[in-house]
Amino acid sequence: MTMSTVMLQPVVALVLWTFVMWLWMYVTRIPAIQRMNLKLDPQVPPRELMNQLPARVRWKADNYNHLFEMPTLFYAVALSLALLGDATSGSVILAWAYVGLRVVHSVFQATVNKIEVRFALFALSSLLLLALTVRAAMAVF
């Protein structure tokens, strides 16, 4: 295993986690749609249809969508560090910590969804991502 491969592990792990959330979203959403006899009308905006689902069902989809927001910056920064050959323990620990907090954020949002706690998890993961970005900036500038 090369040094840059070590930096790619958290990237692949977060992509895999996104698929876990994708599956969880559909495993809860499809039965809820069926129980409610929701008519999937192409004339009704999808958001309007999905807003009819119970909140506990929507939380999974909300989190799945969130995994395409800040984590896209993580992918760019982590891939940049891997290309730069930075697989130092500091960068790898920050990357894994970011992934770990995103997983905790996902589970929390999908099950409890207390906004204050969810925001704290988001803010902490964002600070880790900022630190990782600073490391990348120091390497390229």
UniProtKB/TrEMBL annotation:
Q: Where is this protein primarily located?
A: membrane
Keyword Transmembrane part of the UniProt annotation: yes
Keywords, alphabetical? Membrane, Transmembrane, Transmembrane helix
Where would you find the membrane-spanning parts of this chain?
6-27, 73-99, 119-138
List the Gene3D superfamilies. Membrane associated eicosanoid/glutathione metabolism-like domain
SUPFAM superfamilies attached to this UniProt entry: MAPEG domain-like
Q: What is this protein called?
A: MAPEG family protein
